[in-house]
Amino acid sequence: MLSIDKETFKKDYRQKFIEIHGKDLDEGTDYNKYEALGSLVRDYVAKMWIDTNKKYKENSKKQVYYFSMEFLLGRLLGSNLLNLGIRDTCKAALDDLGIDLDKLENLEEDQGLGNGGLGRLAACFLDSMASLSIPGHGCGIRYKYGFFSQKIINDSQVEVPDDWLKRGNIWEIKKTDKARVVKFGGDVRVDYTDGNLKFNHTNYDAVLAVPYDMPIVGYKNNVVNTLRLWSAEPLSNEFDFSSFNRGDFKKAMEYRDSVESISQILYPDDSFYEGKVLRLKQQYFFVSAGLQSIIHHFKSAQGNMKELDEKIAVHINDTHPTLAIPELMRILIDEEGFGWDTSWRMTNNIMSYTNHTIMAEALEKWPIEMFKKLLPRIFMIVQEIDKRFCSELKNKYVGQWDKVRKMAIIDNGYIKMAHLAIVGSHSVNGVAKLHTEILKKQEMSDFYYCYPNKFNNKTNGITHRRWLISANPKLTMFLKEKIGDSFITHPTDMINFEKFAHNIEVQNRLRDIKLENKRKLADLIYKDKGINIDISSIFDVQIKRIHAYKRQTLNCLRIMDLYNRLIENPNLDIVPRTFIFAGKSAPGYYLAKDIITLINMVADKINNDDRVNKKIKVIFMENYRVSLAEVIIPAADVSEQISTTTKEASGTSNMKFMMNGAVTIATLDGANVEIRDEVGDENIVIFGLTEKQVLNLYKTGGYVSQNIINNDVRLKKIINSLVDGTYCKDKNKFKSIYENLVTYNDEFFVIKDFYSYLEAQEKIDRLYRDKSKWQRMCAVNIAHSGIFSSDRTIREYATGIWGSKCLYKNLE
Ligand code: 26W
């Protein structure tokens, strides 16, 4: 572990400042100070990084590569200081120099290279792999523009490019010497020489993939793993300088632009798959560069290619990196000279795949013509995989053509990436128990029947280092005081806190800590929006991507209902509540955008209505991102996890809230089920349709939302207020929401679950009034949250899927 005293740190820091800025510390701006600190921390990390790589080389343990289109890391200065074990020293040293560490940390841009859950999970996994000393690295794309920044203008979402690199990125190191060439398009000629088929790829467009490496620091264990992100650059010898000579500058620039566009933007969509050729290019680009570099590294470390599948594991995060399967086949066959069967066996042993969604509209499939043109050799390999797979199926299901067709990889003009991922991997996992069961029973039942042993569950987790220790230092201190600090490295030890749940003093302390966190959030809200909120009100929070199935609409309708009731009866006895929302909508997802506008307009109306605004307020916080979540979550009293049962694969914010002592109101969906099992029914508030009821209603079609609305005055009033000018003068503004609920029969059972949700909310109100009972529930939630640390999840992946071992300890 890095050991450094305050005085040395001060000296190092001063020196670093002068070195990079060429002026004295007291002449520097805050940003200069941040840069110097980041740069110093990076120096500290550098030696450990080199040592870790040496150790990996020496003991030749299996290396895991986590391939993901998204890594949503957030800020890194704070977590690196924490994991190095020097945060307190650094804070004290900077204090001496009159510099506020928190302020510098807040200057760092979020690294927002992901849409939401899947990308943040990848980031938590990197942290856990390094902290458990598992040789596990990330491989992805260095998008020039991350997930867009959200502005709320006239109550609606406006997208602004996220130019996160404009001031540079202190954590990355460009490795020009490790660049690889990725080939697109062209022709493949098949030659038959010496009894072997040879595939000659010609006339292709070559793109240079340049890696930028970022250190992933383990928690106080000297381990530094690598996140390698690829950036696309023109190949210098491909750059058509002759065009310059002819003065055809435009043509040369077009070539450059088309290459650079590959790593230009992150697709801001997590809901509807779109068959854009640029996205397919992105996928092949990073997967090909990643695998080439892994194999190059393996061979240069004297690895025996025949043992490749014992020495590396490649994980595919959703179907997005599935091309890793045919690309590895290509490398093994075309470049390494292995036969099909050996290559297929190795590829299968190496690859594993996680599914993160059952939403049919999000499943990736590529039109054959587009695929073939862009990736001719890869297409041939996919065709061969499909041919062999289908012939296996035909033998198994004699005469059942429909079944074979349904399961085929290539069908009806499309390549189905989930099918390719399942067939090419030795492991397929879901991300929560319920989700895995649904995959097995419904979505992927045919495949489960064929390969029952491939399927397994790995319930998601979150890194408690970021989401508790770093985000909630006050609660962390208090836990240490009560149960010691073993939970820092063994998060399930938090269970020792449960015995204090009944202790009045402990309950009071928990309440005080929550109040301080609420004050911090209230200050931020005041600063951002000029709205004063009452910190003794219940902070009722729903923060996540805006999506019909996540049912922000349900939350909003009950707020509208409460508003109606308060107007009717100003003396209505409720505990004051502040409803807090945050989340981004995909730019082209109009319904979700309308939901954002509705929340903001309901907020305007309520916050400005003096008849009610002492009791309720509604806040929509702009630009949801990791660093904002770190402020909101520790301040939450109530965690809203209200998706239509069966639709949320797992959810991970549910775990973050629980770990910070919020009480969950939830449907029995995703990991909520496991949270309920952990804390018991008395420490969570459950409502809504069950899995069976939902599946049954979908199957029988026995649900008509209009029938419920028409027979219910209260509901009718709320629904009508969407289109009668109550919240927006333009009566058509929320017509889409209205029509979804009424005309199109409410696909996500908002109306059906409405009263059940209201009852649950009334229960929350009652529970909160009993101060002691409420704090007891919070304490139990904290105590049981350790199991949802991503350390547990990663141990399960390492032992159950990757067959990888730790560098330093055994995987207990
Ligand atoms: C349109 C292409 C696309 C489709 C799906 C892009 C991204 C996705 C992701 C799979 C969406 C996603 O982030 N899923 C979430 O993954 C989390 C981590 O496992 C789960 O906790 C969430 O329930 C799931 O919605």
Automatic annotation (TrEMBL):
Modified residues (N6-(pyridoxal phosphate)lysine): 656
InterPro entries the UniProt entry points to: Glycg_phsphrylas, Glyco_trans_35, Pyridoxal_P_attach_site
Cellular localization per UniProt: Cytoplasm
SUPFAM superfamilies found in the cross-reference section: UDP-Glycosyltransferase/glycogen phosphorylase
Main location: cytoplasm
EC number, UniProt record: 2.4.1.1
UniProt GO molecular function: glycogen phosphorylase activity; pyridoxal phosphate binding
Catalytic activity: [(1->4)-alpha-D-glucosyl](n) + phosphate = [(1->4)-alpha-D-glucosyl](n-1) + alpha-D-glucose 1-phosphate
Pfam families linked to this entry: Phosphorylase
An example Gene Ontology biological process: glycogen catabolic process
Co-factor(s): pyridoxal 5'-phosphate
Keywords in alphabetical order: Allosteric enzyme, Carbohydrate metabolism, Cytoplasm, Glycosyltransferase, Pyridoxal phosphate, Transferase
Any single GO CC term annotated in Swiss-Prot or TrEMBL for this entry: cytoplasm
Recorded family membership: Belongs to the glycogen phosphorylase family.
Function as written in the Swiss-Prot or TrEMBL entry: Phosphorylase is an important allosteric enzyme in carbohydrate metabolism. Enzymes from different sources differ in their regulatory mechanisms and in their natural substrates. However, all known phosphorylases share catalytic and structural properties.
Protein name per the record: Alpha-1,4 glucan phosphorylase
Lineage: Bacteria, Bacillati, Bacillota, Clostridia, Eubacteriales
